[in-house]
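We modelled each protein-ligand pair independently. The example shown here corresponds to the S-adenosylmethionine entry; the chain sequence is given first, followed by the ligand as SMILES.
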Amino acid sequence: MSNYDILGNIAIVKFDRNTKLSQKKKIALELMKKHKNVRTVLEKIDKVSGRLRTQKTRYIGGERTREAFYRENGCVFRLNVDSCYFSPRLGSERLELARKVKKDENVLVMFGGVAPYAIVIAKNAKPKNVISVELGRECCKYAVENVKKNKLEGKVEIIQGDVGKKVPKLKEKFDRIIMARPNLKEPFLDVAFKKIKSRGQVHYYGFYGLKEENKLRELIKEETKKARKKIKIIKIKKAGEIGKRKFRWRMDFKILN
Ligand SMILES: C[S@@+](CC[C@H](N)C(=O)[O-])C[C@H]1O[C@@H](n2cnc3c(N)ncnc32)[C@H](O)[C@@H]1O
């Protein structure tokens, strides 16, 4: 077995190439024995792909379900692991960002998924409001349910649709914008620059190689110039490995004008 993720009741395993089905079933039983919460074992059979960043899984053992119940940072989430992107590996990222949020901030999460960033922020900080924008309809259904489950109605708003179309229509500007971007081309920074307050902060995720953070710096520099903005880079960090020598980078920057 190469690696696995546990999302509450579901373990998703990426098996080594030549693993036979009988071995997979045996490993599934071992996993369920070792992790008492795990009742379902699925095999990850495809990379995360498409605009909605979904993955395909194959049933290996336990209860036949794709619906996960997951706890993180004092919050609960329900989601379908095949139709919604979700990474438990980003739990510490979410908490790190939540800890930066000051009282009464207006926060926007672009590419919100089932709303883990929005909910972890609203639960662990004291923002005025958090808006989470996500394209996937099914993701948004779960996001709305997750807001209710965490008793954050009135604090977290879910908007279904394309960030490029929905965000420009929002009336307010934001103190903080989290761009939990998919690993796709469009940077959407022009959209963020139009909605961030002066002195506000942007947390931008991009995907580059181990020593390619300069590409990220260049992109931000270019987009900043296009938008006629001035920024101060606060931090740039690796926020997880997404494949062989490919990393999720996060850049935090402040808008100066
Ligand atoms: C990397 S996932 C992040 C999801 C979530 N923030 C999380 O951490 O679980 C990117 C999300 O962006 C959504 N997405 C892709 N293109 C979009 C667009 N143009 N507008 C809004 N959401 C989009 C996908 O459906 C996916 O859920």
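The pocket of S-adenosylmethionine is lined by residues 51-53, 85-86, 90, 111-113, 116-117, 133-136, 139, 162-164, 180, 182 (CB under 6 Å).
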